[in-house]
């Protein structure tokens, strides 16, 4: 039987601006239904890579293919993925239900009772069924992130991108968010790509990862983060997975 096609294929990517090259010869794949973490010290290019994967910026060279369709910028109409930025990016003057209905009114003809049902189903999925009429300012940071996830799922995307999902959350909310990400992947088969610094989160949820390094201009390690932690003989990879939050690697990129 042929192997299933990866959900994302990145081939010999070069990211840079003018003569400045941030990352080159960057090749990796993300299997469907898995949780994939983009890791590395500050300034190594994690967020830049994420912006390229979702088509906000164009690479200097190389290819990004999502679902065999081609580069993200080539999509017309509904994007085939959801994105959750650090802030959650909810509109503060709109209720959670109104925020979640926005993708439907922007991209589909669905309105009225059907729209309300879809909104409530997604709020239930993230445990916010009782908060439909609340404004973002009336709920906690963790709840805002979960509402952002619900909104990112409104168009039934099977691919989600997260930039620092647990940034700014207390430890309990961060664990709840990790559990939700695991549920989305394990129960719904959604592929998750996340940029994160949080070691606890990486070890709990990520199936696979790449570790980027600024000096190396690209990937220095890849694979199961728990195996990399226990077995990698590359000093900076070992430092990354065993550091305290103010450790050596965190300051490397500068
Ligand atoms: N549009 C741009 N033009 C020029 N340089 C850029 C641009 N975008 C990012 N950079 C540079 O690329 C480098 C990597 O930035 P990026 O935010 O991707 O790193 P990061 O690994 O996500 O860092 P952090 O963990 O601190 O958020 C930085 O030096 C940044 O200044």
UniProtKB/TrEMBL annotation:
InterPro entries in the record: AAA+_ATPase, ABC_transporter-like_ATP-bd, ABC_transporter-like_CS, P-loop_NTPase
Membrane spanning residue stretches: none
SMART domains named in the record: AAA
GO terms for MF: ATP binding; ATP hydrolysis activity
All residue ranges annotated as the ABC transporter domain in the record: 8-239
SUPFAM superfamilies reported in the protein's UniProt record: P-loop containing nucleoside triphosphate hydrolases
Record carries keyword Lyase: no
Biological source species: Edaphobacter modestus
Keyword list, A-Z: ATP-binding, Nucleotide-binding, Transport
Chain coiled-coil ranges: none
Name this protein carries in UniProt: Phospholipid/cholesterol/gamma-HCH transport system ATP-binding protein
Claim: Nucleotide-binding is one of the keywords in the record: yes
